[in-house]
Amino acid sequence: MTTGMTHAYDWQGRTLQDPNGDKIGTIDSLYLDQQTDKPEWALVNTGLFGTKSTFVPLAGATPRGEEVLVKVEAQQVKDAPKMEPDEQLSEQQEAELFRHYGIDYTTEGSVTATDDARAAVGHDTSGPTTDNAMTRSEEELRVGTAKHERGRARLRKYVVTEEVQQTVPVQREEVRIEREPITDANVDQAVSGPEISEEEHEVVLHEEEVVVEKRTVPKERVRLDKETVVDEQTVSEELRKEQIEADGDTRR
After folding, report:
1. pLDDT at 238
2. Cα–Cα distance between 41 and 31 in angstroms, integer?
3. What are phi and psi of 228, to 5 degrees?
């Protein structure tokens, strides 16, 4: 059973937000768990003019600047069963609310705000107070690759003319006059004709001439193919990072 109202944690008047950042309403009062003395329910003023009061569970609730973040969504709060504000919630009322919000009623410690939910120490001087800590961030370099077209290659065939010289041996016949004396061996041939006469003797001469013939002969096949080569490129970029230092009266 939840005990009466409390103003512990200094949450009264703060705005309650759901995980999506949607405003739920303004905290009117807090209800403590009887066993842990930790805030278990927030009575929140909802509606257009804050005229409706709805109980919102504080399980896992944390402050965020001037707002308090809870684990339930604004629509769940809108559809929650309406309970009349009183000094305490009955077990039947709590059980009904737990069933609506889907919270295990029997699990000890799971239905109250944690110690981390206490008010932030100090406040921001550079603007509205957000929380009790600074977040240090720095830029990281992420380098990847992107493929793009760098050019095109194509095969083109065209005809060129070149002069080719080749030496070819060529034969021809020439007349050579041979004289031989009359001997006993050839005297019979020499006197076989008339003693005195006119006579002609003819010899046909031959020679070779160069004959040129051109024919087309396939020599090779040429095609385009692709291969991937790997190069290395060095990327240089300036990265920013935040540094946090403390000044004033600080001790270890």
Report:
1. 92
2. 5
3. -100, 125
Max CA-CA distance within the chain?
175
Q: Which residues on neighbouring strands pair with residue 55, listed in sequence order? A: 43
Strands 52-57 and 39-46: antiparallel
**Structure tokens belonging to residue 216:** 């087309």
Dump pLDDT digits (tens) for 43-87. Answer: 998 876 656 888 999 888 888 878 889 989 999 888 888 887 776
Q: Please list the residues that pair with 42 across neighbouring strands.
A: 30, 56
Q: Can you tell me the distance from the alpha carbon of 150 to that of 252, in angstroms, rounded to the nearest whole number?
A: 59
The phi and psi torsions of 31 (rounded to 5 degrees) equal -115, 130
Beta strands 67-69 and 15-17: pairing type? parallel
Element (H, E) at 92: helix 91-101
CB atoms within 10 A of CB 9: 20
Average confidence score pLDDT of the chain: 82
Domain 2-117: CATH superfamily, name plus number: Photosynthetic Reaction Center, subunit H, domain 2 (3.90.50.10)
Closest C-alpha among 41, 47, 23 to residue 87: 41
pLDDT, tens only, 115-143: 444 444 555 666 655 566 788 899 999 88
